[in-house]
Amino acid sequence: MRRWSLLVLVLLLGVGGYLLLRPKGTPRAQEVPEVYTVARGEVRVVVAGSGQLQPWRTLEVRPEVQGILLSVVEEGKAVKAGEVLAELDPDPFRRAWESARADLQRAEASLANARAQGESSLASLQAGVKNAEVAYANAQASLETARRNLEATRLLYQAGGTSRQALWDAETAYANAQRALENARASLEAQREALRLRQAQLQEDLRAQEAALSQARLALAEAQANLEKTRVRAPFAGVVLSVSANPGAQVGPGTPLLTLGNLSAYALVLEVDETEIAKVRVGQRVDVTLEGLPGETFQGRVEAISPQGQVVNNIPVFKVTVRLPYDPRLRPGMSADGEIVVEEARNLLVIPKRAVERVRGRAYVNVLLPDGSTDTVRVVLGPEDARMVAVLEGLKEGDQVVLPKAGGASQTPRTPSSPSPVPLPGFGR
């Protein structure tokens, strides 16, 4: 019995010694909060979209006249403004030009002949008028002489110095002079009327001849233009993107020959959601990246915004046309992404957006204090992008804001209180 009691006592003493002398366990380390040091930076507010590069200007080139296509340039050729792109058979147009030139020569000859004949007839009529004017002046003089003779004869007859026959002869001579004057006046008026009518007729004939001459000149100019149009020229410098007609084909104004693209600049048409289109303005900078040129960023400008939206996949979108300057590495059809910079703020205090807690329209951040405690501070925010937000009031450069755990629930901001210690690793509770 004493032996069992001694054995139990030894066992209890062993257990107690172990419990007293065993190594004490290290307390579990407290997780250090993730912080962000407030510094100056920039915030870029962008509206993103994607599309494909296109030539700044494309034109489907068609001939202006109808004929047989003799030749056309090759696809991919770079051409200058005015360079020949295609040529139609010129023979029918050359014959039409020669016929129009002959018609013009005939019209010129006809006008010259009509003018010469008219001037000759006018000269003859003008001479007749002058003769009639002389005859009328002579008749006036003869009438005046007959009048004076009649008056003198009457005085002599009344004085008994002449016979009745002499008076009768004087009266007859005066009457004849009056009739001669009337005849001369009528002849002069007739000559003047004939001259007037001939002048009017000649003017009408000349106008008709001049109209025919003008029409012949227009016909020749049109024939000349049509002959020149058999050579289809580039309206602007560019690259032949595609050719759609073959030599030997009958072509006309409704036949596409080729598509010409102006590559002095490129157009990128972005589709922007209706919720963001109000931010976009003409002239804003656009940063463009391309799948075919990774690591490169090209800068463009917003050139135009469609006034009316289109429904794409049940979402109203608006077309925004971006102009990119020429770069030899760019090609039409390349896939591109564009970021329209609608707002860009530099040299502002910035923090990650996830550091901000928003409650009833107000913003708060948790600031790490020098003693390891935290304090909730209300801040006034400025512009923000997808990741960062500018702080206008409430923080200063160098402050450390506590970042919540990724995916963790946001904490409700508390009112400032006495500092609470932040557990540090390696210390027991």
Strand order of the largest sheet: 2-9-13-11-10-14
CATH class of the domain at 92-229: Mainly Alpha
The end-to-end distance, rounded to whole angstroms, is 47 Å
Which band does the percent of strand residues land in?
A: 25-35%
Structural Rg = 55 Å
What general outline do the C-alpha atoms trace?
elongated
Helix-strand topology string: HEEEEEHHEEEEEEEEEEEEEE
CATH topology descriptor of the domain at 92-229: Helix Hairpins
Number of strands: 19
Largest sheet: 6 strands, antiparallel, barrel
Number of helices: 3
- Estimated structural class: alpha+beta
Instruction: Tell me the CATH architecture of the domain at 92-229.
Output: Orthogonal Bundle
Low-confidence stretches: 24-29, 409-429
Description:
By secondary structure, the protein is α+β, with helices and mostly antiparallel strands. Among the domains are: 92 residues, Elongation Factor Tu (Ef-tu), domain 3, CATH 2.40.30; 44 residues, no CATH class; 138 residues, Orthogonal Bundle (Helix Hairpins). The protein is 36% helix and 35% strand. The chain has three helices and 19 strands. The protein has a six-stranded antiparallel β-barrel with strand order 2-9-13-11-10-14. It has a four-stranded antiparallel sheet with strand order 6-5-3-8. A two-stranded antiparallel ribbon has the order 1-19. α2 runs antiparallel to α3. The protein is elongated. The C terminus is likely disordered.
